[in-house]
Amino acid sequence: MNIPDHRFAVHKVVSIILTETTVNQPLPGQFACKQKARYLTVILTILLIRRTVAVERWTFKFNHSTRRPPTINMAGIGRLSTKGSVLLLCDMQEKFRPNIFQFTNIVSNAARLLQAARVLGIPPIVTEQYPKGLGPTVPELGAGDLTAHAKTKFTMMIEPVEKELKALGDPKIAILCGIETQACIACTTFDLLEKGMEVHIVADAVSSRSQTDRLFALSRLRQSGAFLTTTEAVLLQLVQDAQHPNFREIQKLLVQPSPDTALLAFFSSL
After folding, report:
1. Taking every annotated instance into account, which residue ranges of this chain make up the domain Isochorismatase-like (predicted)?
2. Active site includes 90?
């Protein structure tokens, strides 16, 4: 950045004013004030230009002396960690089985996440939406030994769950899976984000009755600040190293690729 040199401008303005004053000499008497006005204009113009130059030079020096390299908010890049994480398993119940898109594969991926959470010491929390009418959690999830919190609200953030989170020391990272994406998953995500938690939605472990609702909900939640990820990505990011003491156990969960849940349509629309 070059600081403009206003010396030429000063000389030009003064020259114009003085030339007009010389050529059109004011007559004595009523026109004498005109000459004084011209001289005052010259003086004020010079002072104004000098002040402008001084301000621009100070601003230039200040901006260059205080410039800092860009920083990255490390808390917001979405790095997963076993410490401070919780696995939320939302409403994977028997009565949803025939109606949810890719239900079998969604539950299969969620079951892998639960197995990994047990291995890595990540606490899981399970909810059920109106179990009296919609039935219990499906057995293939492998959550039979866990207390499922019954709810009627769409969000998982009901009082018993809030208490459990507090007892766990208020985890900062939520790994979220289950159904339905546009309802309970969405409401839970909004509540968690408002609490200041980092939310990782496992895209191949969430679904809805329609693929349209599922994909639009994922797009909406991504805009709101949730991270979209996959089952395998979560497992590998949690261990991060082939020398991790639990890597062999996690590796067994990855021998077979995660079943396809038709997510390519989502990414082709981005």
Report:
1. 85-232
2. no
Q: Is the pTM of this model over 0.70?
A: yes
List, for residues 67-101, the tens digit of each pLDDT value. 555 554 455 789 999 999 999 999 999 999 999 99
In single-letter form, the type of residue at position 167 comes to A
Residues of the chain with pLDDT under 70: 1-42, 44-45, 47-75, 266-270
What is the number of alpha carbons within 13 Å of residue 140 lying toward its C-beta? 12
Is residue 191 part of the annotated active site? The answer reads no
Catalytic residue among 90, 177, 184, 204: 184
Cα 198 to Cα 85: distance, rounded to the nearest angstrom:
9
**Helix 211-224 / helix 186-194 crossing angle, nearest 10 deg:** 10
Measured between alpha carbons, how far is 23 from 10 in angstroms, rounded to an integer?
A: 20
Marked catalytic residue, from 91, 177, 191, 204: 91
Contact between 111 and 141 under an 8 Å Cβ cutoff? The reply is yes
